[in-house]
Amino acid sequence: MASVDERIKELQDKIKALKVAKQDASKEVEEMKALKAQQSKDKKDGPAGFQLKVPKGTIDQKPAAALLRKKIFATLEGIFAKHGGELIDTPVFELKEILAGKYGEDSKLIYDLQDQGGELCSLRYDLTVPFARYLAMNGITSMKRYHIAKVYRRDQPVMSKGRMREFYQCDFDIAGTYDPMVPDAEILYILIEALTALDVGEFTIKLNHRKILDGIFELAGVPADKTRAISSAVDKLDKLPWADVKKEMTVEKGLDEKVADRIGQYVGLKGKGREVLATLQGDKELNTIASAKEGLADIALLFDYLEHSFGVLDKISFDMSLARGLDYYTGIIYEAIVEGSAPPSATAAATPAAAAAPAKGKKAAKSATVNEDGVDESTVGVGSIAAGGRYDNLVNMFAEAAGSKRDKVPCVGVSIGVERVYAILEQRRRAEAAKPREKETDVFILSLGKEGLLPERMKLARKLWEAGIKAEYQYKAKPKAERQWAQAADDQVRFVAILAPAELEKGVVRIKEQGVVREAGQDNGEEVSLDNVVEYLKARLG
Amino acid sequence: MASVDERIKELQDKIKALKVAKQDASKEVEEMKALKAQQSKDKKDGPAGFQLKVPKGTIDQKPAAALLRKKIFATLEGIFAKHGGELIDTPVFELKEILAGKYGEDSKLIYDLQDQGGELCSLRYDLTVPFARYLAMNGITSMKRYHIAKVYRRDQPVMSKGRMREFYQCDFDIAGTYDPMVPDAEILYILIEALTALDVGEFTIKLNHRKILDGIFELAGVPADKTRAISSAVDKLDKLPWADVKKEMTVEKGLDEKVADRIGQYVGLKGKGREVLATLQGDKELNTIASAKEGLADIALLFDYLEHSFGVLDKISFDMSLARGLDYYTGIIYEAIVEGSAPPSATAAATPAAAAAPAKGKKAAKSATVNEDGVDESTVGVGSIAAGGRYDNLVNMFAEAAGSKRDKVPCVGVSIGVERVYAILEQRRRAEAAKPREKETDVFILSLGKEGLLPERMKLARKLWEAGIKAEYQYKAKPKAERQWAQAADDQVRFVAILAPAELEKGVVRIKEQGVVREAGQDNGEEVSLDNVVEYLKARLG
Q1: Measured CA angle at A450 (ends B190, A513), to 5 deg
Q2: Compositional bias (Basic and acidic residues) at which positions (chains A, B) (predicted)?
Q3: Quick one: which of A110, A240, B134, B243 is 20 to 30 A from A489 by CA?
Q4: Does the beta-carbon distance from B186 to A454 stay under 8 Å?
């Protein structure tokens, strides 16, 4: 095996060199692929040379999980519809150029379809860019839309925390020109409503504003060409201590130390209520910067709506360290964090004042929690469970790039990380004793006696189905009684309808309710006429 | 433009030749791509060189359409759950080798993901192969599962008939070893239930059995290596007359003419009721072939269940010309056809007896119905609206290929073509006058007077949302009255809640019901106390 590994490395190096020289390396590539194929064959493959698995970073959803997700979606759709949301769906892949250039450094995580002779396409990375494309393409200037669908990112997966390569997003966005901060307030209200209804536990919404951040950078003296890079560094303050972030800014990204320190005076500010806002509004120097002043005015108006009209201000933490990676945000930005789901190092020093204290958890020993991608799962919290912001220029940027001049279509929206919600609810459910149901059957039709009564069971099933009752029976002419009872118990079916020759002659069926303790002598269930059995069951099922 | 076209053709021919000579043609490919890019730029692209569109063969689902599809899914899920179906979901792409070799000639229609350094993957082509992989992977021997999800085929699209490259399938399959034909009967019952509930109009289910077809081929003397090809020819009898099919068998596929004629004596047999079955059961020669005899016994048993237990035999047409393309079917096969949805040439001669008559419609003039792919849409019916069959070997074939020996897991299932159902329902809806609703809002909160009353509207909205009532208001501090009334009307919102200064002082809001004709003097709606408004609206909404 060692010589095969060595040969592979040899070939990889040779191929790199060849590519640099722009020469065709197909023979070497073929040989390497053949060797790799042989290698995995030797390891664990079957005769046909493949393994029975799903692609890395993806999962099948088994029935209990699929049913739980369906309930999560139903809860969210109900909330979205309450607020006048309209449902849309878009194709799972877009033209490659639609997605190009929208995701900054994350663009390398996009899945491309192979060039098979037609248009070049890529799997969608989120639901926001498709929405902007949809608005621009259809000339729509105002819309409240929701979209629940899977997106694709070639990331390092951490399956236990719900970080996968294929995962659901649930987005609600409001597009259109309205009075300031009103739709922004409603989006935040919807997010709070959703996380409350999903029962994810205590949560906080970190909130900031791009214009305030831009103002702080301007005040501190950050060169324009470094804004994006410094923003990205600030955003790491939820995982790294200030000392590390400052080092990244100065050493890696070449920022002047004085400028970094000035930034440091602001990005430590965070808290619920209006204190941070008051501090910033009282900062004379900051208020000489126009964008900071506008941003602060927006926040003040937003807080009024959230407090006096919606009564939800207590969920908001105004947090100067929240920067978010994406370039297209132009106004408020926010992230919802669930208690106990944040990564451990988020509790480490994130302010300059505490910078002296050494970072905890940084040198945790590699343990059983390190997965096959080298990621230590114990240091990964679920992290943010939802996020979003205002993005005013994305739609008309699309329209212009496609050669059609349009007015701005301002947008604000939120994306709820369903997989992370699911990971939390699933962890909680495992702690409970009850096994989750995988199907919804209400009546199991069972036969006693050696004739099996298959045609009669099928006829009764048909009668129940026609009345909308969920019913099953075993696909056996002469099923064993114990096996039928076992199936009804395993599937946690509430009612058993017992057919037996004697009762059938009388035109009755016996209905027994499972899992109900009765007094002695009352265990035999109730005899119900076949003419009435539908009414009877409908009444009992409620 | 002509010289660019010519140069492109030149380059294409040259590239073909080069490929044959196995020489690297990258320079020519680059030049051709650059020319093509210039060509489309010249035509219609914007400055960034791209068009705002979705990929060929895909569509966005706009709100009215998305809502209608959601209703179709809800109807189907309700039926599947009634029969004890368990929901699963699988990744949108599978390992390339999982899909390889499963789809015969259609394998060229599979979308591949680009090789980006990891596992090679392809977009799923149907939901059956993923299900078989799921069963084999998890060692499951019995399961009733449903799955509603999109699949991907690089076909020639005919959008108006619902033939797209990305489209939903709704599958229900029963896996497991049971007494013969019982699950088969229930699957057909479910299919009939579903098409009835979806209200697609009159439909017929064409039914056949692979063992009977195999028996006919054996009796006629079809060589084993030609079975697949001859099967595929027989399957075209729904679109081509017998003369053409026979020609394909003999001329193209090299079958002896006597053998083709013998086949021709059977494949014209079709009809409802038990006549065809009786004819075949009385055919002494056919019954000397073991597989034909087994197949006929299966059909006889199936018909008994369908007629006496489920009462649905009248929907079935036993049709010897149904062959289906897929290799993995081992028992019954079926296809549901909606009246008026079959392609026009299906009415042409499909039996040897009528073979003398010339084929109709074969030389229809190219007309306005020819789309940009050269497909004459008027000759394309919606075709089959659902299809399926029994496939007993697929699961253990997977298990064995992956090196794990397993017992057979027999399966039978049906796949409902939701897009085709949608195309039919949508065509019907367009004939109706009513514009479909795109949102579900029940109450529109409107303000009169110059103050705008935005905080009060937001407070009332919150009150209604907390009670689960779907409510909206305009995101404007001082909205114009006419525009608010217009929005309530456009969105077909049933109730308008009117806030005005005088009423607010009294602590009341006026509720008006839209679209209801009242007697003169009764147009002003009802005054409701703000303390009671939730109860009042809940009662009115029912």
Answers
A1: 60
A2: 31-46
A3: B134
A4: no
Average pLDDT over chain B, rounded to whole?
Answer: 85
| Chain B hits for A401, Cβ within 8 Å | 46-48, 50
pLDDT by residue (tens digit) across B450-486? 999 999 999 999 999 999 999 999 999 999 999 999 9
Q: Which residue has the tokens 């004890």?
A: B84
Widest CA span in chain B: 95
Residues lower than pLDDT 50 in chain A: 1-2, 21-25, 342-367, 379
Give the list of residues 6+ apart from residue B379 with CB closer than 8 angstroms, or none.
B343, B344, B345, B361, B364, B369
Helix axes A290-304, A210-220, angle to 10 degrees: 150
Distance in angstroms (rounded) separating the CA atoms of residues B479 and B458: 13
Cβ atoms A96, A133 nearer than 8 A: no
Cα–Cα dist B140/B408, whole Å? 11
Residue type, A43: K
Q: Judging by beta carbons within 10 Å of its beta carbon (0-12, 13-18, 19+), is residue A226 exposed, middle or buried?
A: middle
Task: Name residue A170's beta-bridge partners.
Answer: A148, A416
A50:B404 CB<8 A: no
CB of B311 less than 8 A from some CB of A: yes
Cβ neighbours of residue A332 closer than 8 Å, sequence gap 6 or more: A184, A207, A208, A209, A210, A298, A299, A302, A389, A390, A412
Residue B312: partners with Cβ closer than 8 Å, 6 or more residues away? B188, B189, B192, B306
Whether B288 has a pLDDT exceeding 90, the answer reads yes
Contact flag A97-B58 (C-beta cutoff 8 Å): no
- Please tell me which residue, A214 or B24, carries the higher pLDDT value: A214
Beta strands B443-447 and B471-472, pairing class: parallel
Give the span between the Cα atoms of A228 and A246, in whole angstroms: 15
Opening angle at CA B9, ends B6 and B13, nearest 5? 140
For A513, phi then psi, to 5°, come to: -100, 130
Tokens of B28: 């020519």
The residue type found at B475 is Y
| Cα A94–Cα A95–Cα A97 angle in degrees, nearest 5 | 120
pLDDT digits (tens, 9 = 90+) for B385-408: 999 999 999 998 888 887 777 789
**Angle of the B26-44 helix axis to the B2-20 helix axis, nearest 10:** 150
Neighbouring C-beta atoms of residue B83, cutoff 10 Å: 22
Q: Which two tokens stand for residue A140?
A: 């729509």
The strand pairing partners of A376, in sequence order, are A370
Q: How far away is chain B from the Cα of A47, in angstroms, using its nearest Cα?
A: 6
Distance from CA of B409 to the nearest CA of A (A): 15
A145 touches chain B (CB under 8 A): yes
| All residues at 6 or more sequence positions from B14 whose CB lies less than 8 Å from its CB, including other chains | B25, B28
Of B47 and B397, the one with more pLDDT: B397
Q: What angle do CA B462, B463, B469 make, to 5 degrees?
A: 90
**Which comes out higher in pLDDT, residue A12 or B274?**
B274
Torsion over CA: A268, A274, A280, A284 (sign): negative
In the numeric block, which tokens belong to residue B275? Answer: 């006549």
Per-residue DSSP letters for A268-306? Answer: T-EEETTHHHHHHHT-TTGGGSHHHHHHHHHHHHHHHII
Asked whether B343 and B380 are in contact (CB, 8 A), the reply is: yes
In this complex, do A470 and B50 lie within 8 Å of one another by their Cβ atoms? no
Residue B353 has pLDDT above 60, yes or no: no
Closest residue of chain B to A186, computed from CA coordinates: B458
A–B CB contacts, 8 A cutoff, strictly below: 291
Check CB contact of B339 with chain A, cutoff 8 Å: no
pLDDT for res A22: 40
Closest-CA distance, A350 to chain B, in angstroms, reads 36
